[in-house]
Amino acid sequence: QVQLVESGGGLVQSGGSLRLSCAASRFTFSEFPMSWYRQAPGEERRMVATISTTGITTIGLESVKGRFTIFRDNAKSTLYLQMNNLKPEDTAVYYCMRPGREGQTAPMYVYWGHGTQVTVSS
Questions:
Q1: Residues 68-84, mean pLDDT to the nearest whole number
Q2: Are 14 and 120 in contact (CB under 8 A)?
Q3: Residue 55: Cβ-neighbour burial (10 angstroms; 0-12, 13-18, 19+)
Q4: What's the whole-number mean pLDDT along residues 76-90?
Q5: Residue 23 and residue 3: Cα distance in Å, rounded?
Q6: Do the bridges between strand 116-121 and strand 10-13 make them parallel or antiparallel, or are there none, so unpaired?
Q7: CA 30 to CA 81: how far, in whole Å?
Q8: pLDDT averaged over the chain?
Q9: Which of 90, 101, 106 minimizes the C-alpha distance to 20?
């Protein structure tokens, strides 16, 4: 069974930085695109950023462009999200997600981590 374990969340002041990690196991990490999602209270889960197997990145939220960077270390089977200049509106649970090998996001292909809480105080 695919395992995705996020870490690195916490409480940070506005303007601060955090780096989230997602340790992946039980599948060949380098062969799959990966994504970060987030879900704030009362809101839908939304895609933050995606990275392809070759390192091509896509930012899914306009509000985080220029502040968040997604990257991966295939040798360590780990996905990262570097978050700079954090704002209170970035407060959410952040989830690591593995889609299908070709990026399919139908439920039958998708695996989620348990999530890590990020709280940004003003």
A1: 98
A2: yes
A3: exposed
A4: 98
A5: 8
A6: parallel
A7: 17
A8: 97
A9: 90
